[in-house]
Design a protein that fits this description.
Oligomer: single chain
Distance between the termini: 71 Å
Largest sheet: none
Order of helices and strands: HHH
Structural class: mainly alpha
Helix content: over 70%
Low-confidence stretches: none
Radius of gyration: 21 Å
Length: 96
């Protein structure tokens, strides 16, 4: 099957556009995952030194990052884990 130069150019532009959209999405996912990791580690450190309520705030920022990431990547086990943790932290904060 032959394509004209114009058709080939259009296919190449579409492929390039798709590639950059995918690359941008993967970068966003990677940043969200590492931000979540950093916030959760920072929150755990704050918890170890009993710095309250900043520890819960930082932990919940990490959880929100992980929830967004898990929705983007369709990792439902991580989504369930972080939603449950968020509810536990929220209930603990409200009842203390």
């Amino acid at each position: 099957m032959e394509f004209s130069i114009k058709q080939q150019w259009t296919r190449l532009k579409n492929l390039k556009s798709t590639y950059f959209k995918l690359k941008k999405t993967l970068l966003t996912q990677k940043v969200l995952k590492w931000l979540g990791c950093g916030f959760v580690i920072a929150g755990a450190l704050l918890t170890a030194f009993n710095i309250y309520p900043l520890n819960l705030l930082i932990l919940n920022f990490g959880i929100v990052c992980y929830v967004i990431w898990s929705l983007m990547t369709k990792e439902y086990s991580i989504l369930v884990l972080n939603v449950v943790l968020f509810v536990i932290y929220l209930v603990g904060y409200l009842y203390s």
